[in-house]
Amino acid sequence: MEKKIGRPRSEKTKKAILDASYELLITNGFPSITVEGIAEKAGVSKATIYKWWPNKAAVVLDGFFAATELMLEVPDTGSAKEDLMIQADNLASFLTSPKGRVITELIAEGQTDEKVAKEYRNRYFNPRRLISKHILERGIERGELRKDLNIELSIDLIFAPIFYRLLITGEKVDSTFVEQLIGYVFAGLDLKN
Q1: Within a domain: residue 4?
Q2: In this predicted structure, what is the pLDDT of residue 73?
Q3: Which residues belong to any copy of the HTH tetR-type domain (predicted)?
Q4: CATH code of residue 39
Q5: Is residue 152 part of a domain?
Q6: Residue 2 is assigned to a structural domain of this protein
Q7: Domain that holds residue 15
Q8: Model-level pTM?
Q9: Domain boundary among 46, 68, 90
Q10: Which residue, 52, 104, 181, 191, has most beta carbons within 10 Å?
Q11: What is the number of domains present in the chain?
């Protein structure tokens, strides 16, 4: 049996770091946060943070997601259209909330900092995209959707308009918009051909 080097990760220390990063994010915004500031607020060393996270973006995103409990369950109503409506509506509701606006701040930061972009893609967007993929795959298996459906492009068609409104036009993103969006997307998917 191989012996592990160093002390095991303390859940109490981890929680202190994640709580500190979340509090600093909400209070000061992402650009103002430093690993030094997180370490000071959590009562740990910078080395402890870097032992567990590769950079500021990773620890801040983990703190944010831990505090806002964003691990959404995969809806399974028996209808791919309904499941995607639920997923898109949940996303839109979250992104337009005060806490969800942090995501748009991180997207903006990611335009000039590739580490931030990589972390929010890996920790937030890719897991949610995988949920959408599973929903569409179930729809194909149940015969609701055509077998040759381009799943990746379909996901883009569903979620891109939400981000376009949030980041570009500033137009309303609500349940009515999501319902219309999903209706148009599913009408355009030519489901059975």
Answers
A1: no
A2: 66
A3: 11-71
A4: 1.10.10.60
A5: yes
A6: no
A7: 11-68
A8: 0.78
A9: 68
A10: 181
A11: 2
Report if residue 90 sits inside a domain.
yes
| Spatial contact of 80 and 142, defined as CB atoms under 8 Å apart | yes
Rounded Cα gap, residues 120 and 110, in angstroms = 8
Structure tokens, 146: 């055509």
* Model pLDDT, residue 168: 93
**Residue stretches of the chain with pLDDT short of 50:** 1-4, 193
pLDDT digit string (tens) for 128-184? 899 999 999 999 999 999 999 999 999 999 999 999 999 999 999 999 999 999 999
Cα atoms in the Cβ-side hemisphere of radius 13 Å centred on 15: 3
Task: Out of 45, 68, 91, pick the residue that ends a domain.
Answer: 68
Q: Is 32 exposed, middle or buried (0-12, 13-18, 19+ CB in 10 A)?
A: exposed
- Residue 72: both structure tokens together: 């959404």
**Residue 125: predicted pLDDT:** 87
| 92, 162 Cβ separation under 8 angstroms | yes
Establish how many alpha carbons lie within 13 A of residue 45's alpha carbon, considering only the half-sphere containing its beta carbon: 3
93 in the same domain as 48 = no
d(CA 61, CA 118): 11
